[in-house]
Amino acid sequence: MSAIPFAAPALPLDEAGKYVAGAYVVFIALILIYVSIMAARLGRIERELGELEALADKARDEEREKEPVA
User: Fold this and answer.
1) What is the model's pLDDT at position 13?
2) What 3-state DSSP class applies to 64?
3) Are 19 and 11 contacting, i.e. CB atoms less than 8 angstroms apart?
4) Would the pTM of this model clear 0.70, i.e. be above it?
5) DSSP letters of 3-51?
6) Which of 1, 5, 11, 25 could pair with 16 as two cysteines, CB 3.0-4.6 Å apart?
7) How many CA atoms lie within 13 Å of 2's alpha carbon, on the beta-carbon side?
């Protein structure tokens, strides 16, 4: 007899549906926010990497110009 309260749902199933739907909406919103933050970070890292590559190419070209031609 003591297991009966644990077997009964906390809310009737017709009322719990809106909470389940709300939980799914919040979960999907959090995933979209996470993905957008990661995409922004990736874009920033790629842009910075391109700038560093351009600086390295420029420095390499300057070093080649300074080398004496034999």
Assistant:
1) 65
2) helix
3) yes
4) no
5) THHHHS-SS-HHHHHHHHHHHHHHHHHHHHHHHHHHHHHHHHHHHHHHH
6) 11
7) 0
